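Interim report, section 4.2 (structural modelling).
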Amino acid sequence: MKRIYLDNSATTQLKPEVLDVMIEALKNHNFNAASAHSYGQEGKLDLAKARETIANFVGAEPREIYFTSGGTESDNWAVHIAKKTKKGKHMITTTVEHHAMLHTMEEAQKEGYDVTFLPVDEYGLVTAKQVEEALREDTILISILYGNNEIGTVMPIEEIGAVAKAHNILFHTDAVQAVGNVPLDLSNSTIDMMSFSAHKIYGPKGIGSLFIRKTVRPYAFIHGGAQERGYRGGTDNLPSIMGFAKACELAGENLAGHISRLTTLRDKLIHGILERVPHCKLNGHPTKRLPGNVNISFEFIEGESILLMLDMTGIAASSGSACTSGSLDPSHVLMGIGLSHEIAHGSLRMTLGDFTREEDIDYVLEKLPPIIQRLREMSPLYEEEMRKQNGNV
Amino acid sequence: MKRIYLDNSATTQLKPEVLDVMIEALKNHNFNAASAHSYGQEGKLDLAKARETIANFVGAEPREIYFTSGGTESDNWAVHIAKKTKKGKHMITTTVEHHAMLHTMEEAQKEGYDVTFLPVDEYGLVTAKQVEEALREDTILISILYGNNEIGTVMPIEEIGAVAKAHNILFHTDAVQAVGNVPLDLSNSTIDMMSFSAHKIYGPKGIGSLFIRKTVRPYAFIHGGAQERGYRGGTDNLPSIMGFAKACELAGENLAGHISRLTTLRDKLIHGILERVPHCKLNGHPTKRLPGNVNISFEFIEGESILLMLDMTGIAASSGSACTSGSLDPSHVLMGIGLSHEIAHGSLRMTLGDFTREEDIDYVLEKLPPIIQRLREMSPLYEEEMRKQNGNV
Amino acid sequence: MAMYNDKVMDHFMNPRNVGEIENPDGVGEVGNIRCGDIMKIYLRINEDEVIEDIKFRTFGCGSAVASSSIATELIKGKTVKEALKITNKDVLRELGGLPVIKVHCSVLAEQALKAAVLDYATKTGKHYEELDGFNPEEEHEH
Amino acid sequence: MAMYNDKVMDHFMNPRNVGEIENPDGVGEVGNIRCGDIMKIYLRINEDEVIEDIKFRTFGCGSAVASSSIATELIKGKTVKEALKITNKDVLRELGGLPVIKVHCSVLAEQALKAAVLDYATKTGKHYEELDGFNPEEEHEH
Ligand SMILES: Cc1ncc(COP(=O)(O)O)c(C=O)c1O
Ligand SMILES: Cc1ncc(COP(=O)(O)O)c(C=O)c1O
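Predicted structure of the assembly:
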């Protein structure tokens, strides 16, 4: 059976070059970079080289790149830094953050912090003005999702960052979905801290980074050995870090080409569906959008059924965020952009990646419309619509 | 050149079977186990199987195994759970913990907790009686290192745990060095929480576990998605988890054989050195000791020089903990067992593993004594000794 | 490997008795859009109170559709009295089990049948003690 | 690949001028055991204040030994005045650099020389203004 993987926002597959680096590293570069012997010293060099590659890719200095176990830890850490190094009880974020930020902020609330969750517009956007109006004397952190993992909306990060700068407030962005998918240069940016993760850019899982600008005072979240200049303990995960670096290197080689290719495929898929299937709508912004993200709500039917039927044709997609499936509520992002429960439940996310080919899009455009139709014919919500149509005949 | 790796307590190399599992997983089992499509569902199965294997290995139930990024995170998490779920301001640990626990406890002190750091005896042991005497009305956690990463001393964990049980106090152990090296059965144990890490047992780096007994209330440390039953967010690191499981499976197959083989090699190395080299002493307990740990202090000389000269003969060892090298103070563990600065600075740790062969030990016994002698002849501290010897002639 | 076993997938991909009955003897709809599943059942019941025909439409996830399908198979041909004895446990057993978080879907079918029978009873002035205390407007258990 | 460059490793593995001088004209020892490095220098100085021979013994890490070795090479044959101009920067340059956390070791050699010259000056009643304010008992910089 054909297997077409359109869940690249949940996780990506390793690029062959990354796999090669990791296999070689697991075999021969798998030592403790803190050790004084030759193996350890080789590891130290490998580590420094990887850190430099990753720093170059995002326009940071090597010492501004701190390794973590992934985007989730990075988000938690960024909030921790604000709590520990700034005086004040107020933080600002949005209603459409990933759970890694949302739940971290909710935890801060339990600890006594005031958190403003800024509402977004119908496209999933917040404005710099909203952020500015939410500021208080005691605001210590502004954290805004760069690219939305569900609906793909890309926030006006630098505009928001300018507000943060103007008021001298720490500015963090969760760029787990954005890195590798938007042009980014931290050497010319208002971002103070940035979370990103290897497994979203064809690198391994379990490794990520928090960029902490050198002007920001770091503070450890995970205490331990002297790794990461004492700010994040734990034996350096060299094979994964080397895979992460390779993934960054590859992403940096042809970022513009990657973006334009995916954008073309994405728009072909979006418009192909909107043309072929009635009663559906695109979620997220039509153009301020991650290049690989397609999120469409289909009226009258429920997302998991669509997934299952697609799965039977070999197409792997998701409904809402991969992280929220398993819960019964529709995703907080879809509710956040003001969808009704019905429309929110009927959402389908297909996220494209570098392994996606144009023929895959054609295949989806062939298979999806009859599936939607079949499910609608099973739906009690569609009866009235059918009657209307029949009446019109 | 011969390369003999005797730094297995810093990190181990992958067993070939683990490498095979990981390569296969990186290629074909690298999906998001939270996704609803077939790939995700396969991942969910893989994840459940791995969790079960690991649980079996330590005598836990699968739901008591929570995945983390390693031993360091597990230690941090265990303390967090005590803080968040228990009322009280006092914790008990030892002066010889790994930095992952030591620095976490010091952080707790900054937050206002009282921490008792129990002193150890000359072998690095604390007693159940010491723990009992340190108890207060408001003690919320007892955390004791199972097997010492520097000097190898194995603590009387179950005796201490019995005290914890009798007083109904949460009991954690950092078993990062002990797991796979001591007989362990959590189904018949006083341990409430236990940290362990894959890369110390021939598995990958960047993955570990906190065992949380089902009678203990968990509390999230890293907030995010619904992974680990909502208690630890972050996309499941399936390839590493599968490698971890394979490592546990292999360790479980012949634990007794592994222990007895290493113990024999260890004792051969210890006695061989003590016989051949004057003015040196074994650090740690002669028998209550991790099977692969050799730690010896050589008078008159400094550890790093020994390491460097050994390294030139192809022998990789460490001086004190790998994590503390880079700092100038002698290790807190060696100071903790009461060594003078001089003796502490002259310590050499050689940690054996499953890849260590008897001929490696013979090679070390051949190469080490002349190195010690050469370095001593360079040392101003040895002059008096030399004069004494010459005088005696 | 999918989320569900083969039987569930079969009933999801090839649901039995989908559709509606014109001028049904009873119709019932339960569930609500917030929870993400709604089921509607149509019944044709003869003079001997035998459920001669049954059709359903369901908005919901795979297990909701499969539960609906298998429930209609269990119900068809039974008397109303017999059918009212069918519980979500029967649905679960017939399906060979559902994931824990999906078990509530099997309740939906039980409730939808009751709602349809209640409609029938109301129209015909009959009384079924099995329906005492049943209120189709109440949110089904979650 | 080792912690140190080839030159450092060469001076560590084959240190020049290790040992002691019988009845030296000056001896100095600096450093302390807490910090993990101690260096002792022996000097033979002729009537023209030329350092004719120099020997050292060092307790310490690789860079301490290498710094000692290279320093003795720099010092040997120089007049006391010239030798006192040698700083840890010269030692570092000659070694081709040390890891940042090891730079303090190069200071050790500079200090040990001063201590040995001070001993010589004390014995011979000479005065070197380069030594004004120098106290070998003070902990060397870290
Ligand atoms: C006793 C002990 N605890 C904790 C750790 C930290 O484990 P990890 O490197 O997996 O974070 C180590 C090893 O470095 C250790 O030996
Ligand atoms: C926007 C966003 N933030 C954070 C995360 C968490 O990243 P990780 O899985 O590396 O912990 C994800 C992905 O799951 C994400 O999409």
